[in-house]
């Protein structure tokens, strides 16, 4: 494996959706701490948006219906665990009377998760979950903290390059995956008013 391919692989590993959620939530906790109201909201956001989606990978060999499907089984279980986390997050936000901003983030993730399922399963059009998992956090960071988050666009460019270099996605798959969280953010803002 040449150096650029190794670098592309590294970019794809460090930008998986749960790590991007961890980074974005941590940035918000540092720069917009009031968004969470308290540390409990922050910890639960990590459980619902980082821990649960990540559990799909180590649990896949043990769960019937996913264990014999290799990488595709991992991917599908990770999506299912992600959506479960988003639903639990929305429920927790309602029950704990969470601030509007954190509730919006759960809704952005939930709508994006549903969007990925609709594209990939119902429309039979592959949308990049990887692009979705990178663009979503950067988009909501731009919404909550402003133009300082514009640096994230460089990261999106690197993810596109790495995905194309490793032949994991086409430009259209990356574009569709990127469009989903932007639409989710817009819908969430619209209905949050």
Keywords:
193 residues, mainly alpha, 8 helices, 78% helix, 0% strand
Report on this structure:
Helix 5 runs antiparallel to helix 8. The N and C termini lie far apart (50 Å). The protein contains eight helices and no strands. With 193 residues, the protein is an all-alpha fold. It has helices at 3-14, 17-31, 39-59, 70-95, 100-122, 129-145, 152-165, 171-192.
In short:
With 193 residues, the protein is mostly helical. Helix content is 78%, strand content 0%.
Q: What is the overall shape? A: globular
How much helical structure, as a percent, in the residues? over 70%
The biggest beta sheet is recorded as: none
Radius of gyration (Å) = 16 Å
**Can you count the beta strands?**
0
Strand content: under 5%
Overall pLDDT metric = 92
Distance between the termini: 50 Å
SSE arrangement:
Elements lengths: L2 H12 L2 H15 L7 H21 L10 H26 L4 H23 L6 H17 L6 H14 L5 H22 L1
Helix pairs in contact: 1-7, 2-3, 2-6, 3-4, 4-5, 5-6, 5-8, 6-7, 6-8
């Amino acid at each position: 494996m040449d150096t650029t391919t190794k670098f592309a692989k590294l970019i794809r590993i460090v930008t998986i959706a749960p790590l991007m959620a961890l980074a974005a939530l941590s940035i918000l906790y540092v720069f917009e701490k009031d968004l969470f109201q308290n540390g409990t909201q922050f910890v639960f956001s990590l459980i619902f948006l980082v821990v649960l989606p990540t559990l799909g990978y180590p649990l896949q060999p043990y769960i019937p219906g996913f264990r014999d499907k290799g990488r595709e089984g991992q991917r599908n279980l990770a999506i299912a665990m992600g959506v479960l986390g988003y639903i639990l997050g929305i429920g927790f936000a309602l029950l704990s009377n969470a601030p509007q901003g954190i509730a919006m983030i759960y809704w952005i993730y939930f709508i994006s998760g549903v969007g990925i399922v609709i594209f990939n399963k119902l429309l039979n059009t592959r949308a990049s979950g990887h692009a979705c998992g990178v663009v979503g956090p950067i988009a909501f960071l731009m919404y909550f903290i402003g133009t300082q988050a514009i640096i994230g666009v460089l990261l999106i460019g690197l993810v596109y390059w790495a995905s194309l270099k490793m032949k994991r996605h086409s430009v259209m798959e990356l574009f569709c995956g990127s469009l989903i969280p932007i639409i989710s953010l817009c819908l969430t803002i619209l209905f949050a008013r």
